[in-house]
Design a protein that fits this description.
The complex is a heterodimer.
Chain A (H helix, E strand, L loop, with lengths): L1 H14 L8 H16 L4 H15 L3 E2 L2 E2 L2 E5 L12 H5 L11 E2 L2 E14 L5 E12 L6 E7 L9 E5 L2 E13 L7 H9 L3 E4 L5 E12 L2 E8 L5 H13 L2
Parallel strand pairs in A: 9-10
Antiparallel strand pairs in A: 1-2, 3-5, 4-5, 5-6, 6-7, 7-12, 8-9, 9-11, 11-12
Chain B lengths: L2 H9 L4 H22 L2 H18 L9 H20 L14 H4 L3 H10 L3 H12 L4 H8 L3 H22 L4
Helix pairs in contact in B: 1-2, 2-3, 2-4, 2-7, 3-4, 4-7, 4-8, 7-9, 8-9
Classes of the chains: A alpha+beta, B mainly alpha.
Amino acid sequence: MYMDNKIRAALEYAAKDIAPKENMLSDITERYEKECLKMKKIKPVRVLAVCAVMCAAISGIAIGAGKIASTESHSSHYEDINHYPTLDELKNIIDYTPVYPKKLGDHEFESCVPVHSTERDENKNAVRDYTGMNFSYKTENGFLNLDTKPGSVTDTEGSESVDYNGVTLYYRSDVYKFVPPDYKLTEEDKELQEKGELVISYGSKDIEINTMLSVVWNKDGVGYCLIASDPAEDKDEFIALAKQAVDGE
Amino acid sequence: MHEETAVRALKSGDMSGLETLYALYAKPALRMAYLIVSDYQTAEDILQDAFIQCLRSIKTLKDNNAFRPWFYKIVTRLSYKAAGKSKQTVPCEDIYGDISVTDRYPSDTSYIYDCIKTLGAKHRAVIVMYFYADMSIKEISSALGCPQGTVKSRLNAATKLLKERMEGEYVYG
């Protein structure tokens, strides 16, 4: 005991003047912010804008007897998980079990982020709150996301269906124009919108036009949406990625 | 802000939670790292890395009241790894060169600490975790990823080595 006390006192003495430098906390915050920006090539607001539009366009989620009129979603890069998570880690965040391959084609897993959503009916009443998980995969350009949520996709109008191992995949390709919140639609925009050839998405900093490929499907009570912006893959190759995601390989 | 509230805030993306946790644990964690690696700059790097790891994986902390052992585990693991790399062990007899025995040690404390620095990383780490951070054998075992029996034997061996080194050159007390 005497020796123990001597050791304790010696350690206390040796460390008594050691303190973090004044700007350490701001250094940590700054480094973390930079890391988040570096890891996230695509800003979450942009991805969410896409997902929100995709949900409205192709993936109405059936809840009880009524349909969802709108979905509000938000995420924070502070919640980013920048390693391939185990199912146990995800169980602390979401209450369903998604399939999320470590690699899709040549695309390695990059990060994932919980997305907190509220679904509303036509009267804007909140019908359901849930947390989904968006998985991002590395790409040369644009982004490749596998978005998951509890529930099932029911509204797939305008999509092309492909059956695969007992699962129906719904594929579609859309042209998106991302515009700032105060953007005024041009006559051409209106015309293309009416023809169903253009989707306007508000909320970005600059105007940008992208082709979005998506495949949605349901499996084991989970709704999936594989979505990519200007991908290197053509239609068949993109559907092959979706099939790989279905298999979880 | 209470510690548990801070953890919950951080989990929901509120960075004010980090400020609270930093205020509570930055200094003791830095001191622990310093005692293990014996170098201030390395200890600062470890502290920064530990908080970054904390931010990345705070969601994985199941019990919001268990931040301290969880965070200390991150700090000790990083410190142990850094200490293992640097191999900063100094033979006890080389510490003070030609200074005479009577002048060497102004007090027990500084002498004992110098002897602790001569221990290898695995022994120094358990000494610091057990005697300075008041971590239990179970917590040390979890932090280092080795069985509790191994921690106990390392602790015994480290204490014995210290005693031998101290008795060899200096009659303490």
